[in-house]
Specification:
Elements lengths: L5 E4 H6 L1 H10 L4 E5 L2 E6 L2 H25 L6 H16 L1
Parallel strand pairs: 1-2
Antiparallel strand pairs: 2-3
């Protein structure tokens, strides 16, 4: 089971948004905004959001690859490694 995220009442957010945003930026996880005791929104730092989006895209690509393999499509390992080496070589320059 994952860690329970920090919660902040919407009234606290309204009163001191800057402090809530500082807490969000310095924290490790998202903040859940509550209204009348119920969760209504989730906030996270831009760094965490971007990391999550990169991971989600990687998972989409892996799932697409699995579907290609199941359908008998795709590329050989040698071709994939050659393309990966080319991409990594571009990043190094």
């Amino acid at each position: 089971m994952g860690k329970i995220p920090d919660m902040v009442p919407v009234s606290d957010f309204r009163q001191d948004a800057a402090a809530v945003l500082r807490k969000l930026q310095s924290g490790t996880g998202p903040l859940v905004v509550t209204q009348r005791g119920r969760a209504v929104a989730v906030m996270q730092s831009i760094d965490a959001y971007e990391k999550q989006e990169r991971e989600r895209e990687l998972l989409r690509l892996l799932a697409a690859g699995e579907r290609e393999i199941a359908a008998g499509e795709g590329h050989s390992l040698a071709d994939v490694m050659k393309e990966a080496d080319a991409l990594l070589g571009e990043d190094a320059s």
